[in-house]
C-alpha cells in the first residue's frame, strides 16, 4: 500500500503521509505547522513534513520514500 500511495508525489494527501510516518516513525514533535519525526539514524533523510493545503508537498513525499527505503534496508541487515 505504501509504495502505491507514494508512487505519485504530486498527488498524496497530507493526512495519508502523516499516517504512514506515524506508523513507521512514531509520534511526531509538532512545532508550528511542522511535524518532525525521530529516525533511528542521524542525519538525512530527516523527516519534517507540513501541509500544502490538503496535500503533502511533493519534495517531502520523496524524502519520506527515501527514509522508508533506508528503514527497510536497515531492517534487512538485522
Characterization of the model:
This protein is α+β, with helices and mostly antiparallel strands and 78 residues long. Helix content is 47%, strand content 18%. It contains 3 helices and 5 strands; from the N terminus they run H-H-E-E-E-E-E-H. The protein has helices at residues 2-6, 14-25, 58-77, and strands at 29-31, 34-37, 47-49, 51-52, 55-56. It has a 3-stranded antiparallel sheet with strand order 1-2-3. The chain has a two-stranded antiparallel ribbon with strand order 4-5. Strand 1 (29-31) and strand 2 (34-37) form a beta hairpin. The longest helix has 20 residues, at 58-77. The protein is globular and about 40 Å long.
Amino acid at each position: 500500500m505504501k509504495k502505491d500511495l507514494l508512487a505519485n508525489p504530486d498527488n498524496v494527501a497530507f493526512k495519508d503521509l502523516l499516517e504512514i510516518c506515524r506508523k513507521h516513525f512514531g509520534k511526531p514533535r509538532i512545532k508550528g505547522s511542522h511535524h518532525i519525526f525521530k529516525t533511528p539514524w542521524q542525519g538525512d533523510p530527516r523527516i519534517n513534513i507540513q501541509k500544502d493545503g490538503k496535500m503533502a508537498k511533493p519534495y517531502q513525499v520523496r524524502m519520506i520514500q527515501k527514509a522508508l527505503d533506508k528503514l527497510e534496508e536497515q531492517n534487512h541487515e538485522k
